[in-house]
Design brief:
By secondary structure, the chain is an alpha/beta fold. The protein is about 35% helix and about 20% strand. The protein contains 19 helices and 23 strands. The strands form 6 sheets. A 6-stranded parallel beta sheet has the order 3-2-1-16-17-18. A 5-stranded mixed beta sheet has the order 7-12-11-10-9, sandwiched between helices. A 5-stranded mixed beta sheet has the order 19-20-21-22-23, sandwiched between helices. Strand 14 and strand 15 form a beta hairpin. Helix 1 packs across helix 2. The radius of gyration is 36 Å and the shape is elongated.
């Protein structure tokens, strides 16, 4: 995938079932194919297709999941050799969603002059200083450089900062006549030899850096006093004798065309930025940080820029400023197989929903502007996705066909569910032909994989397919598992009833119901927890509870057979 493309996420609901996952994967592929065709100039084939930012060739559609996979879904993905969507638990805007300012970092050895030149050339106020492995070493700002000129009066600063001779050469546009450009000024002071020879001799100490002119006697005196370096101004010729004596005394010689005054003014620009950079208590953010959580820090601090580090390896990736938060776009999201806010990925309120593809009743998702909604009374969202492939003339790959077929089989219990329509059956059989499979064989394999629950914990079983609902002022949750054997369901019943009480408290809901559905018998044991939960269940189905459960013959669909009755009872 092109990492430079803007990603639009396609999500199913929390605690996703097979339809939720497979529909997201298949719809992402369809949308990307449509974008590719439009980019290739083949947009006419889509008739009245709306051309928006979402059909931009710089956009990529990506399937994501908001919960853990159940065994049946894991089997289907493996059966058709398709990787699972990446797990994302929150879609609030993150730092990685901001257009970061890409700034090339610099090593801490460069001079103030070089730093200033770089900052002016790319119009930035803060320069990141990096280690060799691209981790952040420190920061230097234009203000730091300005303060270095205003506050530095110490003539030993070159030695204190361990200034490389290469920096001095750069600052003075100089030439190294004698010595090693990679050497350092490690001790001594900076002095100007402008007095007579006797006074010069008194004021020069070992390892000093001496600024002087073309006078042979002064140059010789400085070398004999064991100066570390002499800087010869105005491009004056350095005699062979001085060069030889300097070399023998390990004294560096630099020649510059600047005059003495200018050299004295410029030489402090050679100090490495490590001497002035900020390296302690740096305020940095990670690419995965949520903008809402860092905004307060950014507004409180008066820094112009903040460095951003990669979440995993702490590598420097760019800079952001407070201006970056102005008109920052939200993440764009497409919802499949749900349209209830409580079932959606966390942070949805801060994202922009641009499309909904679903087969459930209209729920509580609110959008900031009109969106594309396709909601059909069929047994499976994947049936709708199949129809969209056909309508847009997009060929369905074999693995995608297998995923969509498996989703329809799962949601309709191989056409047994009352939610199943002729459209679902026709879609599943057409997809099975493309995938080269038989629906009855795939169904047996899927249901066997999904009903193998012995090794699963109570928590894993409970949340395998769990959704929250609201009816007036009452909130309730409904979970469901399916099995091909009653013995397995009976075992799970004994384990899951105690856990339901805990789950009710954790979710802060008024009631919790759990469906133990026997695929072969096409019947459900309905468990319940919460005040009045038993009364609501009995009133809804006119069936008395026995052994902490209601036996509901012919009830297999949560969406069409259970939820409407519970809603009706609660709303009364």
């Amino acid at each position: 995938m092109d990492t430079h493309k803007k990603e639009i996420y396609i999500f199913g609901h929390k605690n996703p079932d097979t339809d939720s996952i497979c529909a997201a994967i298949a719809y992402a592929y369809l949308k990307n194919q449509i974008v590719s065709c439009i980019a290739a100039g083949d947009g006419q084939r889509f008739g009245d297709f709306v051309y928006t930012e979402e059909t931009n060739p710089d956009v990529s559609y990506v399937a994501r999941r908001a919960g853990q996979l159940n065994p049946e879904t894991e089997f289907v993905l493996k059966r058709f050799n398709t990787p699972a969507p990446v797990y994302v638990n929150d879609v609030r805007a993150q730092v990685c969603d901001i257009d970061l300012r890409k700034v090339s970092g610099v090593p801490e050895t460069i001079s103030l002059k070089q730093a200033w030149t770089i900052m002016r050339s790319v119009n930035i106020a803060t320069l990141p200083i990096l280690n060799k492995d691209n981790t952040l070493r420190g920061l230097i700002t234009i203000g730091d450089i300005a303060r270095s000129y205003m506050a530095v009066f110490d003539n030993t600063i070159l030695a204190d900062a361990k200034t490389p001779y290469a920096n001095i050469l750069d600052a003075l546009d100089g030439e190294m006549i004698v010595g090693d450009p990679d050497g350092l000024v490690e001790s001594g002071k900076v002095a100007i030899a402008a007095a007579n020879q006797e006074l010069v001799r008194e004021h020069i100490s070992e390892n000093d850096v001496i600024i002087l002119g073309n006078r042979y006697e002064t140059q010789l005196c400085a070398i004999e006093q064991h100066a570390a370096c002499i800087i010869v101004c105005e491009g004056s010729v350095v005699s062979r004798t001085i060069r030889k004596i300097a070399e023998n005394n390990h004294c560096a010689v630099i020649s510059t065309h600047y005059d003495t005054y200018t050299v004295a003014r410029l030489i402090n620009q050679s100090v490495p930025i490590s001497y002035f950079m900020k390296k302690d208590d740096l305020i940095t953010f990670k690419t995965t940080d949520f903008v809402a959580e860092i905004k307060g820090t950014m507004l409180k601090k008066r820094h112009r820029d903040f460095p951003i580090l990669s979440s995993r390896h702490k590598k420097f990736v760019g800079m952001i400023s407070r201006r970056s938060l102005i008109n920052m776009p939200s993440k764009k999201i497409i919802l499949v197989d749900h349209n209830e806010a409580e079932q959606a990925v966390d942070g949805l309120a801060d994202a922009e929903v641009i499309e909904i593809i679903d087969h459930h009743k209209l729920g509580t998702v609110e959008t900031i502007k009109p969106v594309v909604v396709r909601n059909q009374p069929v047994g499976c969202t994947s049936t709708i996705i199949y129809q969209m492939y056909v309508e847009n003339g997009i060929d369905i790959p074999q693995n995608i066909a297998g995923l969509l077929c498996g989703a329809i089989i799962s949601d309709t219990l191989l056409y047994r569910s009352p939610t199943c329509t002729d459209a679902d059956r026709a879609a599943a059989e057409a997809l099975a032909e493309i995938a080269g499979i038989k629906t009855d064989e795939l169904a047996r394999e899927m249901f066997r994989a999904g009903s193998n629950l012995h090794s699963r914990s109570e928590e894993e079983i409970f949340y395998q397919d769990f959704k929250r609902f609201t009816a007036g002022s009452v909130t309730f949750g409904v979970g469901q598992i399916m099995s091909m054997t009653q013995d397995e369901l009976d075992e799970i019943k004994e384990r899951i009833i105690p856990y339901m009480h805990k789950a009710k408290k954790n979710h802060d809901v008024d009631m919790v119901f759990f469906m133990l559905t026997n695929i072969i018998d096409e019947a459900t044991q309905l468990l319940y927890s919460g005040n009045q939960a038993q009364e609501v269940a009995e009133t809804s189905f006119m069936v008395p509870a026995k052994d902490n459960a209601l036996y509901l013959e012919g009830v297999v669909s949560r969406k069409k057979q259970l939820i409407p009755r519970l809603m009706s009872t609660l709303q009364q």
